[in-house]
Amino acid sequence: MPEQRPDKRLVADSFSRAAATYDQAAALQRTVGSNLLDRLPADFAPVDLIDLGCGTGYFSRALQARYERSVIGLDLAEGMLRHARQTSPMLSRWVAADAEALPLRANSQDLIFSSLALQWCPDLGCVLREAYRALRPGGYLAFNTLLEGSLHELRTAWRAVDDFVHVNRFMPAGELQHILAASEFVDWRCEVEEHRLYYQRLGELTHELKALGAHNVNPGRPGGLTGRARLRLLTDAYDIFRTDQGLPASWQVAQILMFKPA
User: Fold this and answer.
1) pLDDT, tens digit, for every residue of 198-208?
2) Comparing 85 with 2, which gets the higher pLDDT?
3) Residue 233: exposure state from Cβ atoms within 10 A (0-12, 13-18, ≥19)
4) pLDDT tens across 17-52, in order?
5) pLDDT band at 14, cuts 50/70/90?
6) pTM
7) Per residue in 75-133, pLDDT tens?
8) Exposure string (b/e) for 111-144, b if CB count within 10 Å is 16 or more?
9) Taking the CA atoms of the chain, what radius of gyration do you get in angstroms?
């Protein structure tokens, strides 16, 4: 039986609430998004660009600076869009949109860029079909997504406490490869990066996840607050992973470029 995916409205609400704190906690997001941007061909010169899952607009601004073209920021989270409008007055086109039903004409875009947004979509295959439809021949879909193995330390530590779902589930690499291969894009490549961040206390990690809006929104999550005794069990279980650098949090990130043939 396939695992249930997070409810998109819960995801949107979670990120909307985190809009004001997101940028201060988004070091990993900026690193992997910059790595994705660097993977685009140096001679690629898109005219019409979309930042899909634009969040606070960080990469919308980066795309505009790189290509010197107007960028449209799309996001499901209204709170993120409000924040983007306030902090990026030089960009005026912020649109509430679902990646699985893009409000874009067919063959209208040269680049659809999306950094750490599409892992929240229940149907990635539908997203790829929509992107293919919206891209012009010769256009690129550039996106990255989190894979199974991300936050495995936190997931393992919680298993010592109870059987609830405490950590967001992410797609296995094999499932991602199958979806990419089944898409209309015949020319694509996928590379996996591993990133590891370190924290002195577990609370620093959990606070950061909350600030990013990336805390647990999966079916099967527990209700209510976590008591002190269970927090102590969790802390002790996580401390097994401690190194000289601190408590590690691992992330598996797939970096993907997909080309629509001319």
Assistant:
1) 999 998 888 88
2) 85
3) middle
4) 544 444 444 688 889 999 999 999 999 999 999 999
5) low
6) 0.86
7) 998 988 998 888 887 776 999 999 999 999 999 999 999 999 999 899 999 999 999 99
8) bbbbbbbbbbbeebeebbbbbbbbbbeebbbbbb
9) 19
List alpha helices for 99-192, DSSP H. Answer: 124-134, 152-159, 173-181
Determine the 3-state secondary structure of 152 from DSSP.
helix
What are the CA-CA distances from residue 132 to residues 30, 116, 166, 195, 259 (Å)? 26, 19, 34, 29, 9
Query: Of the CATH numbers 3.60.15.10, 2.40.160.20, 3.30.450.190, 3.40.50.150, which one belongs to the domain with range 8-151+168-198+250-259?
Result: 3.40.50.150
- Delimit the domains of the chain by residue range: 8-151+168-198+250-259
Full DSSP string of 221-261: PPPSPPPHHHHHHHHHHHGGG-BTTBEEEEEEEEEEEEE--
| Residue 228 to residues 123, 140, 157, 163, 206, Cα–Cα distance (Å) | 37, 49, 15, 17, 15
Residue type, 186: V
CA atoms within 13 A on the CB side of 177: 7
The C-alpha atoms of residue 93 and residue 101 are separated, in whole angstroms, by 18
